[in-house]
Specification:
The complex is a heterodimer of chains A (381) and B (340). Chain A has 381 residues and is α/β, with parallel strands linked by helices. Chain A folds into 2 domains: 300 residues, 3-Layer(aba) Sandwich (Rossmann fold), CATH 3.40.50; 37 residues. Chain A is built from 14 helices and 7 strands. Chain B is α/β, with parallel strands linked by helices. The longest helix of chain B has 15 residues. Classes of the chains: A alpha/beta (381), B alpha/beta (340). Chains A and B meet through helix 7 and helix 8 of A and helix 3, helix 4 and helix 5 of B.
């Protein structure tokens, strides 16, 4: 907004020229100690109540993720891209949003959707193979999990711009992976967002691998956050296993965007502990000791150490959180064990708003096939 | 979301005046923007310049930069952001400038624009219009004369239309903007400057209907966009030779109006489809197959395709050889056995 309150679509802010810090910003170190000095980037550790809330969400999300991976191995889901080890990025970012803000997730961000309040059965409809998207996007203000890389980033920019034209003070946040930053749509999304100054926050989860391809084969940039400078927006290079830092920095970016300050690019440096999906074989492209190295940098353990040292995480509270996580896991097992009832004729019902004669004829043909098959089964009996 | 302003869609008609297709499209955009403040227009050069074909001439001055603006030069970005805007309740009308320049947006079109409604069981609709100045015969250098319609028409989820005259251009663009389905709106460049007397606002047949634009008894020519005029010229020439040709303007490529086309073909028992695009795998293949499947026992001869050669679109000094002409159409009709 300009001084008189009117909005111009021209660039209003001096483009940023400052490179992100080479060392990732962090507020808690791996031992769970609060960090001081310039490594914090001037951001403050969130209060204990906020950190306890983040801890609870991360524990619940981890339990959900482990449960769904197990169900996938049992054949209950067609596939599941796990975010085990990336909880600080996922939860820290999504917890920064208000109810009215929008989330544009990828296939790896199921736990962000869980944190957004969406029921496990609805999140997992697509991975179970029932329907491509199973939750109400408008109710939860969460777009479908994008499979084509970086395409959803442009949707986030467009929606944010529409909201700005409507004078609605909302923000659109989107997740991208390190591999997705190589896609043209990532470039176009960063550029459109910066030129139009849309209220968009880009969270690049650098988990080191695009399926099997390591980061050094995606970019020659020193950090992925560096790319922000070329678009004239702020970039932050963050320890993606420090939820305190991910939350504090994302929250600041969200509020800056909400106030009309434009987009921000945040790189969270983390690690994909699990295979890409259940059909992947990481032993072909990375050493087990590398995984062990990153497991010792677990984001949940780090926050737990801090909260215990502060006396904030009591045994009672820990038991309560465990109960919540186990309850969710049990409920997830239950809904995913039941087989969903699918109506093949629904395949024709949502393609167009305006009915088409040719599609009605094809629907009738499938209905006849199904009826014939039903007759056949009865005959067999 | 704030309340939107929706005025009566069609004000009272004016007296007929000579209008080009470009002028009709400009008027349709202006009237749609005036009727509904959710209608926004953006793309490359659509602002102060008014578009390279001047279709958006004067609109930014009239509606301001929040309703119509120049975007960065990136087609995937244009379509991708339009998806987000449509999700938020806007009705974006975006321009691709030329067929061949729409290809960077192919993934957004096919993977998202076409699939969003089905993916979300109708909970998310994308009421957006993608305007594509299409086809050749304008003396354009490479990449300025492609015919991309079969890519879009073969994608479930997209509605694909191509008007051939100023009245349809106005009416169908208004209807496309009002549609809750995403519409690929193809504008035949070589017909931008063709004129017709129109009283605006004009309402023609709905965009899922083909139209018989010339009646005849012996042959049905199925044409769309730029080839409708070519077919009419062929019909005029044939009349002198005693051949009575009916011309059907398909108008909408997806969905296909089997009813209107079938009625004409059953009457004449002979059909040929005409388009500029290359023949192999072109839209005419679908038309020929549908017409044959549904009307085989009424046909006296195989359905012909009079199309571009299966070559990349030629350079300007050679393009006349690629384009269907009345002579080429009539020569093709001569290949049928007429005495059988």
């Amino acid at each position: 907004m300009s001084h008189d309150g009117t909005m111009s679509l021209n660039v209003e802010h001096a483009p940023t020229r400052t490179l992100p810090s080479e060392k990732p910003l962090r507020l808690l170190d791996n031992a769970g100690h609060a960090v001081t000095g310039h490594t914090t980037g001037g951001f403050s550790l969130p209060d204990t109540e906020t950190l306890l809330g983040l801890y609870r969400k991360m524990v619940v999300a981890r339990r959900f993720d482990v449960q769904v991976t197990a169900l996938t191995k049992q054949g209950r889901l067609a596939t599941y891209p796990s975010a085990y080890g990336q909880e600080a990025c996922e939860i820290g970012a999504v917890a920064s949003l208000d109810r009215a803000d929008w989330l544009f997730p990828t296939y790896r961000d199921s736990i962000a959707l869980l944190t957004r309040g969406i029921a496990p059965a609805d999140i997992l409809q697509s991975f179970r193979g029932d329907w491509h998207n199973g939750y109400d996007q408008h109710e939860f203000r969460a777009a479908a999990q994008a499979t084509p890389l970086a395409t959803q980033a442009l949707h986030a920019v467009g929606l944010a711009h529409a909201a700005r034209l409507r004078r609605d003070p909302i923000v659109a946040l989107t997740f991208l992976g390190d591999g997705a930053t190589s896609e043209g749509d990532a470039h176009e999304a960063f550029n459109f967002a910066a030129v139009w100054q849309t209220p968009t926050v880009f969270i690049v989860q650098n988990n080191q691998f695009a399926i099997s391809v390591p980061l050094e084969k995606q970019t020659r940039a020193a950090t992925l956050a560096d790319k922000a400078v070329g678009y004239g927006m702020p970039g932050f290079h963050v320890d993606g296993n420090d939820v305190a830092a991910m939350y504090a920095i994302t929250h600041a970016a969200v509020e800056r965007a909400r106030a009309g300050g434009g987009p921000t690019l945040i790189e969270g440096v983390t690690y994909r502990i699990e295979p890409h999906t259940n059909s992947d074989d990481p032993s072909r492209y990375r050493a087990a000791r590398d995984v062990e190295h990153w497991k010792r940098r677990d984001p949940i353990e780090r926050l737990e150490k801090y909260l215990v040292s502060e006396g904030a995480l009591t045994e009672t509270l820990r038991a309560e959180i465990t109960d919540e996580a186990e309850g969710l896991a049990a409920a997830t097992r239950e809904v995913m064990t039941a087989e969903a009832e699918l109506d093949p004729l629904e395949l024709f019902d949502h393609v167009y708003a305006r009915p088409r004669a040719a599609l009605a004829a094809q629907r009738a043909a499938l209905a006849a096939e199904l009826a014939a098959a039903g007759t056949h089964q009865e005959d067999a009996r | 979301m704030t309340a939107t302003v929706t005025k009566d869609a069609r004000p009272e008609a004016s007296a007929p005046t000579q209008l080009t297709m470009a002028g009709a499209l400009n008027a349709a955009l202006r009237d749609a923007m005036d009727a509904d403040d959710r209608v926004i227009v953006y793309g490359e050069d659509v602002g102060p310049l008014g578009g390279v074909f001047r279709i958006t001439d004067g609109l930014q001055a009239e509606f301001g930069e929040e309703r119509i603006w120049d975007s960065p030069l990136a087609e995937s970005g244009i379509i991708g952001t339009a998806i987000g805007m449509a999700m938020y309740g806007m009705r974006p009308v975006v321009e691709m400038q030329f067929d061949a320049f729409s290809y960077p947006a192919f993934e957004q079109m096919v993977s998202h624009v076409a699939k969003m409604r089905n993916r979300t069981k109708g909970r998310v609709t994308l009421p957006m219009v993608v305007r594509i100045p299409c086809a050749g015969a304008i003396g354009g250098v490479e990449h300025h004369s492609d015919s991309s319609e079969s890519y879009w028409a073969s994608t479930p989820g997209l509605t694909v239309v191509m008007p051939s005259n100023p009245a349809d251009a106005y009416s169908m663009l208004r209807e496309a903007i009002d549609s809750d389905d995403p519409v690929v709106f193809m504008e035949p460049k070589s017909r931008y400057w063709s004129k017709a007397p129109i009283a605006l606002p004009v309402t023609t047949a709905p965009m899922d209907r083909a139209e018989v634009v010339r009646t005849g008894d012996d042959v049905t020519l199925l044409a769309y966009g730029p080839t409708v005029r070519t077919a009419l010229e062929a019909a005029d020439a044939a009349e002198h030779e005693g051949l009575s040709i009916e011309v059907v303007d398909l108008r909408t490529l997806s969905p296909f109006d089997d009813e209107t086309v079938g009625a004409s073909v059953r009457k004449t028992s002979r059909a040929a489809v005409i388009h500029e695009a290359a023949q192999f795998g072109g839209y005419g293949a679908e038309v020929a197959a549908r017409v044959t499947e549904r009307n085989f026992h009424h046909l006296a001869a195989p359905v012909l395709r009079i199309a571009g050669f299966d070559i990349p679109y030629p350079s300007p000094k050679l393009e006349e050889h690629q384009l269907p002409t009345p002579d080429r159409i009539l020569a093709a009709l001569d290949t049928w056995e007429w005495d059988a």
